[in-house]
Design a protein that fits this description.
The chain has 199 residues and is of the alpha/beta class. 59% of the residues lie in helices and 13% in strands. It has a 5-stranded parallel beta sheet, with helices on both faces. The structure holds thymidine-5'-diphosphate.
Length: 199
């Protein structure tokens, strides 16, 4: 079984991925909790450097790097775990490319082409929160003052990412979960949604 969590920064998708993994492990399941960009593969290392680079890479370059990291992720981690009948939970997957790189202007047919061979998740859960809620969580997490203007810009960006996620969720059949409230509340919603889907 292959479960993916998607959502904007500050949505709580990482927390939810971990809570679901812990829940399944307590029930005796074998679970692989993983994420993109990957943490342990060299492609993820380069991707993170690229994302932080001042020499802003072309959006298609980012899409290709994400796909390269995804290919390593699939071949080294995801596929072997699925073949061993383990449950794979990934924080971000190709849904992120169809949101972020699409917003950067990369055409859908290009994204479709470079992502066409990757295994389809059994379910993709979109942890949805309004941009303001995500921003509050991000500010609560990071200390220091970014300056008001930058905050507004970031809020606008979070809004557009959220809109794109909701649009793609509808097209691709993602399960949309209300990410507001306590982590435990949201976790219960996630479990409920998985049950509704017979998982
Ligand atoms: P990360 O620091 O892991 O952020 P987060 O905590 O939000 O997951 O960096 C991931 C960033 O990479 C995030 O801003 C989204 C972006 N990303 C893409 O643009 N395309 C992709 O295909 C993926 C997987 C991530």
């Amino acid at each position: 079984m292959f479960i993916v969590f998607e959502g904007i920064d500050g949505s709580g998708k990482g927390t939810q991925a971990r809570m679901l993994a812990d829940y399944l492990i307590r029930r005796g399941k074998k679970v692989v909790l993983t994420e993109e960009p990957t943490k342990e593969l060299f492609t993820g290392y380069f991707t993170r450097i690229l994302l932080r680079s001042k020499d802003t890479p072309h959006p298609k370059t980012i899409a290709l790097m994400m796909a390269a990291d995804r290919n390593e992720h699939v071949e080294k981690i995801i596929r072997p775990a699925l073949e061993a009948e383990e449950i794979v939970i990934s924080e971000r997957y190709y849904g992120s490319s169809f949101v972020y790189q699409s917003l950067q202007g990369v055409p859908d047919d290009f994204l479709n082409y470079i992502n066409r061979d990757f295994p389809r998740p059994d379910v993709t859960i979109l942890v949805d929160v309004p941009a303001e809620v995500a921003m509050e969580r991000i500010l609560g997490r990071a200390h220091g003052n970014d300056g008001l203007v930058q905050k507004f810009e970031q809020l606008e960006f979070l809004r557009s990412v959220r809109q794109k996620y909701l649009e793609i969720a509808e097209k691709a059949g993602f399960v949309v979960i209300d990410g507001r409230g306590s982590p435990e509340d949201v976790h219960q919603r996630v479990l409920g949604a998985l049950r509704d889907h017979g998982l």
